[in-house]
Write a structure and sequence with these properties.
The complex is a heterodimer of chains A (114) and B (113).
Chain A (H helix, E strand, L loop, with lengths): L2 E5 L2 E5 L4 E8 L6 E6 L4 E7 L6 E3 L2 E6 L4 E6 L8 E10 L5 E5 L3 E6 L1
Parallel strand pairs in A: 2-11
Antiparallel strand pairs in A: 1-3, 3-8, 4-5, 4-9, 6-7, 7-8, 9-10, 9-11
Chain B lengths: L4 E3 L2 E4 L5 E6 L6 E8 L3 E9 L2 E5 L6 E5 L5 E5 L8 E8 L8 E2 L3 E5 L1
Parallel strand pairs in B: 2-11
Antiparallel strand pairs in B: 1-3, 3-8, 4-5, 4-9, 5-6, 7-8, 9-10, 9-11
Classes of the chains: A mainly beta (114), B mainly beta (113).
Amino acid sequence: EDKVVQSPLSLVVHEGDTVTLNCSYEVTNFRSLLWYKQEKKAPTFLFMLTSSGIEKKSGRLSSILDKKELFSILNITATQTGDSAVYLCAVPFITQGGSEKLVFGKGTKLTVNP
Amino acid sequence: KAGVTQTPRYLIKTRGQQVTLSCSPISGHRSVSWYQQTPGQGLQFLFEYFSETQRNKGNFPGRFSGRQFSNSRSEMNVSTLELGDSALYLCASSGLAGGGEQYFGPGTRLTVT
């Protein structure tokens, strides 16, 4: 069965710490992996990764994919209280009909304390 | 560009009733996906519509249905509501069919009493 597993499920750190969030997946015909940040409402798109070993970076956030070991990590350096959110990982799966649907992990809830 | 909009934002219904939620995608986007989010199960895929056709369906009972109109707006209907249907219902739009970069609306918080 295709699935996406995130770890840890929750994390509490202090401002300034660096955190690493993990996402592993099992899927046939892998195409991409996406990271989202969800605060109180809608998930907002962070990164889409398609190639192994190429880091995507946006400010203090960065992410990398390992297609051989079937996982991705999301790094946040110098964390701030505004980084507190649930971080979701998602992978498109190909259905029997040949189309794709996004399957999400359960998320990592990050709390950054001042 | 305006983002994805969903209405209503909050809804309280009683068991046995039915509900219709609406989603307007980003202009130009033809794919609309619906998700149910609960604390225990996380984000679960309900269905996806592209060009008025349902392309994918998640593992939800037949009480959950949807449709998409020619202007790409989509509605989701849940009949015979159960307490367990209480959740945040999120809609996401994409310029492409299926997975890939999706943009989420603010969600509709449904409470079933």
